[in-house]
Amino acid sequence: MSPGDPFVLLETRDLRARYDESPILRGIDLQVPENSVVALLGRNGVGKTTLLKTLMGLVPKAEGDLLFEGRPIGNLRPEERARLGFGYVPQGREIFPNLTVWENLQVSLSVAGPAGRERLEQVYTLFPVIQEMLRRKGGVLSGGQQQQLAIGRALLTAPRLLLLDEPTEGIQPSIIDQIEDAVHSLKREGDLSIILVEQYLDFARSASDTYAILDRGSVVHAGQSEELSEEVIQHYLTV
To answer: pLDDT category, 112, cuts 50, 70, 90?
Structure first.
């Protein structure tokens, strides 16, 4: 990097992972600058979710380097990465349906301590419906409300890096707009970076600073999100 370039929060070098003996990630080189949003794009089954799980430590890396603030973390367990500042919102949200909204939030608060309590008002501001539904069971919320809860719960851990796996999947347009507004607000706050896996291209392009397109477990194209062209979309992303 040259002087004036943003600090690289997360970097992968030739990162590889497999399920059983089947290679899924085939040498991922990726940089996530501090205070930025990087969109991971690609058709279904190209390794986007596996990459997030490998970054979080849920899938072990087979080869390559994974650096956080310049420190190798490829051998750390998921809970150790969480303590470093990794937050993860998986595809499908995975809230606790039999707990109330407040009890779901308390799971994160019990881990994060004072830092999480300081974030609570921010979460309520980003997603007012969470505060309105504190006594409701998570399982009775709509899909969009559950997604807001899942993101809010992750934010309470005060992450440095937030991994969002398809946050707009199956969600009504009004809540997609709220989630996009929340991403922009978090960017303005300037205290975390986001890796966003997303199929909804308008949302991904608007919410992110840069993008990386995956195909067959490798990054095949990358650039500034505002420069993502229809030619690139047609070549790499249309089915």
So the answer is: confident
Helix, strand, or coil (residue 140): helix
Q: What is the fold of 1-85+159-239?
A: Rossmann fold (3.40.50)
Scanning the chain, the segments in alpha helix (DSSP H) are: 48-56, 78-84, 101-112, 114-126, 128-132, 143-155, 173-189, 201-207, 230-236
| Contact predicate 183/207, CB 8 Å | yes
Alpha helices in 133-217 (DSSP H): 143-155, 173-189, 201-207
End-to-end CA distance of the chain: 36
| C-alpha to C-alpha distance for 4 and 185, rounded to whole angstroms | 24
* pTM of the complete model: 0.92
Q: In what order do the strands lie in the sheet with 193-197?
A: 86-89, 161-165, 193-197, 37-41, 210-215, 218-224
Tell me the backbone φ, ψ of residue 27, rounded to 5 degrees. Answer: 100, 65
The Cα 120–Cα 136 span in angstroms is 18
Bridge pairing between strands 161-165 and 193-197: parallel
User: Taking residues 68-77, what's their average pLDDT?
Assistant: 96
Whole-number mean pLDDT of the chain?
A: 92
The 10s digit of each residue's pLDDT in 77-96 is 999 999 999 999 999 888 99
pLDDT for 161 beyond 50:
yes
Domain boundaries, the chain: 1-85+159-239, 94-158
